[in-house]
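Listing 4. Sequential folding, example run.
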Amino acid sequence: MSHAGSTLQLALDLSGTFVFGLNGALTAMEAENLDIVGVVVLAVITALGGGVIRDVLIGSLPPAAFRDWRYLAVGGGAGIAAFFARRLWVRVQRSITVFDAAGLALFCVTGTTTAFAAHLGPFQSVVLGTITGVGGGTVRDVVIRRVPTVLSSGLYAIPAACGATLTALALEFHFHSSAIAIVAAALCFSIRMAGVHFNLNVPISHPRTTPRAEPPKEKQ
């Protein structure tokens, strides 16, 4: 990867880390009555979870989050910023969803690029790019004891897969650039936000309902 490409990758990675950190912290404060330590821990888990899972799967150990201090610093800093500016974020309606969509968009691109740089094929890179995007939020939801968004929202993994697919195709056919990376991230973000705005979803399962027992007939 060229120096310019490495710089772009790092910038996108750290941007995704920050917005996912904000998302994790705000989600934690909304769901649980946590102190600053709990908020920062949830921010770091959300910000770094997907990347750690990706790096473990491709055998890049220790994961980048533990090799470069900037990832932990940015993720933790986002948690602190969210904690002390909570009132500001609360005023911005849907801020949690916006940060979540932004992190998803950035990480699906960087995850795919990282997997491709590890000499994986386009399909495998798309899978790992999608996992990078949804992994942190999934770990966050498990920690705060709620059904992960990726399992309950049809337009969550799908936008990540779309952004990852465009990135993988650009890398495979050698037309990847900074502009393509931004377009892929924008594609993922737009699909996710459209799904939220228009309440779009894929078909979901419905719990089986038990037939109501008929009242016993009166004896004649």
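-- end of first protein; second protein begins --
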Amino acid sequence: MRPPLNTASPAHPTARRFSVLRPRHVALLTLGVTGLCALFYNTADLPLAMLLDRLIDPSAVEFWSDITKIGDATPYVALCVLLYFGGRTLFLRAAPQKNALRYYEASRIGLLGLVSYAVSGALVHTLKPSIGRMRPKLLFNNDQYGFSPFSIGWDTSSFPSGHTQSIFVIATLLVIIFPRMKWLFLSVALSVGLSRMILKAHFLSDVLFGAYIATMSVLLVRAYLFPDVKALCQTPATARKNA
């Protein structure tokens, strides 16, 4: 008797769905991104920095300085604190009313943001002095390009980009909550990363690794500690994916 079409046969086990959050896949992806950053260091970082220096008009620096301020973590951390404590307080006061669940969800979103900022920020600020990469400004001012490990100071803390890490934490969090607006959030995050290169604060590989640390931190923290945080106003497809 033939088995039903939808039943997995012992000889043909159901293929496991690929997940970027499995430990093995995270390790491989991290290794790949690290290798890509090393490749950029030897190929793209230097010529791209020089190209941007030639192309960007000095009059545009003020505009990009305003864009880069969007990557400041302070207002986002404050918002997460407000969401957590405000949502928690309102939840305790409103329970067991129907709208209490919304306050609870807000507090969980805020806590997810705070933990993600803590994890990614700890990684970034551990790597910065350990690697000691010289910033592009040293290249243009003193013709210096390379590393000065275990140095303390702004000039040797280029890798990875902290502003990029900050904006990609909040962008990834917002993509999870409002998936329909993902391209808006990602566009803003990419603009901040670009501004860091235009202002000669970071190279391409610094921005890439800062974005990677932030994105993976949010996804992993959510997967292991906050799986209940889901999209608001979900489409049917998003609801099935998060089920």
